[in-house]
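Technical note accompanying the year-one report. For the benefit of new consortium partners, we illustrate the data format agreed upon in the data management plan: each record pairs a sequence with a structure-token string. No post-processing was applied to the example shown here.
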Amino acid sequence: MKSSVTLWVAVAVIVLPLRPWAQAAPPAGADEVAGNIRVAAMIPAGISTRDACVGFRSLGECSAALHASQNLSIGFADLRERLMSGQSLGAAIHAIKPTVDSLRAVRRARQQAREDLRPPG
């Protein structure tokens, strides 16, 4: 007679503290984007400031996506579409340009976004 063993696995949810560039904030609006000259200057032609950052959780996330787009010569619309569908920035970069070190690209874009959001002075 064979005995069967049932193994129950507990799933733990780990909540990591938010990084400064992605702190919870109201969604980025057109006024907020237009008010930040550094971010507004990166928005590609053909996309309004109103549409560029809609859907991102913060201006920092939008800025990081804009920087990644510019740094890697990736179309912002394609990158944004992947991010809005739930992919992380690193996964979206890897899907579009598999030969790029996506971890390094994300770190660079997030650092640039932090600098964009730093008050002038």
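Partners are asked to follow this layout when depositing records. Residues 23 and 118 are 14 Å apart (CA to CA).
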